[in-house]
Amino acid sequence: MRFSPVAQIRLGALQHNLARLRQAAPNSKVFAVLKANAYGHGLIPIAEALSGVDGFGLARIEEALALRSHGIDARVLLLEGVFSDTDFEQAAAHHLDVVVHDASQVELLCQLKLSKPLKVWLKVDSGMHRLGVQPHEFAALYQQLSQCDNVCQPINFITHFAVADELENPQTVKQIQCFNQLTEGLPGERTLCNSAGALGWPAAHGDWIRPGLALFGGNPMVGGRAPQYGLEPVMTMRSKVLAVRHLSAAEPVGYGQSWRSNNATKIAVIAMGYGDGYPRHAVSGTPVLINGQRFPLAGRVSMDMLTVDVGDADIQVGDDVVLWGEGLGIEEIAECASTIPYELLCSTTARVTYQYLD
Ligand SMILES: *Cc1c(COP(=O)(O)O)cnc(C)c1O
Question: Which residue is closest in CA terms to ligand 1's atom 6?
Fold first, then answer.
């Protein structure tokens, strides 16, 4: 028997979640956002499994070139655009759509002589204040791009929400208004929504939605749980019980001796640690499933192992463990570690074995 974690990836759940998103935004096309190694699920196998989607969203050109070198020819939107003449030329050669989010990118693009014109998405900063042109710069940059030989006309438009995961927050309405006012009457396609926008803000669906987390079965809403939207986890992080030991009352467990049992109990040692991507900041009490039953994490997470208080349950070496996924929502684990499902998914390390299932 091997005592090491396996990330099981259910491609059927991915298809299911895509269908849920299409139901939620029936008049929009979908850029499946697969940045950061498809949120830790493996870029190429996930892209291949999503061959029916309308396009892919990626953060960096290296990610797009990896798709192309695997023969994946679908439409790709580079969410941060590119920053050098060679990368603009690569984007043209590989027919990548690029986001243009500031004046220097517009300047560079308009000076070049590209072999083919590019599909361009002009990004508006409607309130996120991270990337995007300011409302007062918009008209001039739009004009410049409209006259640029390297740009396929018409120009398309993109913006990004800061708090779409808070359904009561009026900021999103303001962002939608700002974006709509600036782009009103202009030709070209529009995209505003990440997962939270797609699930929670139908007025903003536009021509394309850009879901990431929800495709992988994560609920993007603050305090949300996946089943609320009928999403299914794509990744289930599994491992095994490596050892079981008996403790007397008041005996501590692990580094720092931060946890002590009140009573005599049993501790199951699990082959999973922060060296595999389990969050070290998960607190004692974080749920762990062993043979389908919930038990609390006890003491600090170590690099290769974590320890679970199993009381007097009949737990044996080799028993099956789920750290997150089927039967144990990743949102709950993220909360127990003061983080978000996104970070947990992206943090899975190269030491974990990936298993792809239909
Ligand atoms: C990452 C990202 C997305 C996807 O966000 P989710 O919350 O995972 O759905 C969409 N748009 C942009 C610009 C992004 O950077």
Answer: 212
CA distances from 191 to 3, 251, 305, 329 (A): 45, 56, 43, 29
Asked about 356 being catalytic, the answer comes back as: no
Hey, which of 79, 100, 122 would you mutate to test ligand 1's pocket, going by the most ligand atoms within 8 Å of its Cβ? 79
Give me the pLDDT at residue 148, please.
Answer: 97
29, 255, 266, 274: which one is catalytic? Answer: 255
Give me the residues of the chain with pLDDT under 70, please: none
pTM of the entire predicted model: 0.96
Nearest Cα residue to 298 out of 256, 340, 343, 330: 256
- In sequence order, what DSSP letters do the residues of 163-231 get, joined into one string? STT-TT-THHHHHHHHHHHHHTT--S-EEEE-HHHHHH-GGG--SEE--SGGGGT---STT--GGGGT-
Cα distance between residue 85 and residue 80, in whole Å: 15
pLDDT tens readout for residues 292-335: 999 999 999 999 999 999 999 999 999 999 999 999 999 999 99
Catalytic hit among 29, 35, 113, 356: 35
Out of 76, 97, 175, 194, mutate this one to test ligand 1's pocket (max ligand atoms within 8 Å of CB): namely 194
Q: Cα 171 to the chain's mean position, in Å? A: 22
Atom of ligand 1 nearest to the CA of 33: 4
Compute how many other C-beta atoms are within 10 angstroms of the C-beta atom of residue 357.
10
Q: What is the pLDDT of residue 227?
A: 82
Task: Based on the residue annotation, tell me whether 142 is a catalytic residue of this protein.
Answer: no
262-279 pLDDT, tens digit each: 999 999 999 999 999 999
Chain mean position to CA 140: 34
| Displacement of CA 102 from its chain's centroid (Å) | 25
Ligand 1: residues with CB < 6 A are 33, 35, 79, 160, 194-196, 210-214, 220
Look-up: residue for tokens 């992080």?
A: 237
Q: How far is the CA of 169 from the centre of ligand 1 (A)?
A: 19
Q: How far is CA 180 from the centre of its chain?
A: 26
Whether 206 contacts 9, CB under 8 Å: no
C-alpha 79/C-alpha 59 separation (Å) is 5
